[in-house]
Amino acid sequence: MLHHQPRADLVQRLPVSLAQLIEDGSPCGVSEGSKDITQRRYHMQVATCMSNRAMPTRNSATVECVRLRVADWNKNVIDQFHAKGGKGIGPWGDNLLLLTTRGAKSGEVRTTPLVYHRDDDRYVIVASKGGAPSHPGWYHNLVKHREAEIEVGTERFKVRATPITKGPERDRLYEAQCDTFASFRTYPKKTKRVIPVVVLQRVS
Predict the structure, then answer these.
(1) Count of alpha carbons within 13 Å of 171, Cβ hemisphere only?
(2) 61 and 140 both lie in a single domain
């Protein structure tokens, strides 16, 4: 049993919980029971990093340790997505897609699992990052490079992203996301930023 508590200043620099990883990553919108379990697992991982005696005590080393664990967890979700044909994935069911973007600064190609809802033939994702004060990395990637690829079910195709930062359309789509994943209603209360919505439109 680990009794080490992660330092608050470090935890603030990390994803709020594994239940929010699918958003950068931030699956958000899992059932409360599933979310609680995932959060406990996450904080155990943080505690493992913090209690590793071989680990340097620098903040950057601790953050990097957890980021590596986050990357492993994301990879497991992606592997599960492919194994199940994109259906029935954990607590997110069929409402999970894989978004592949090009890094805004690095230029590296990265794939992120994200929850979504449909708006007619469009795919809608939300840059909530669990109510964190900053936008997720994938959002910055799409602002810089509007062309991306997504996987939905067994399909993989190119999309063009349209970020919507304010206005009635943004509000309507955000509310629709809340109808699909109730936890999104809590995120605006945690941050001063207006959480953007991104519409993904399939392109030929």
Answers:
(1) 3
(2) no
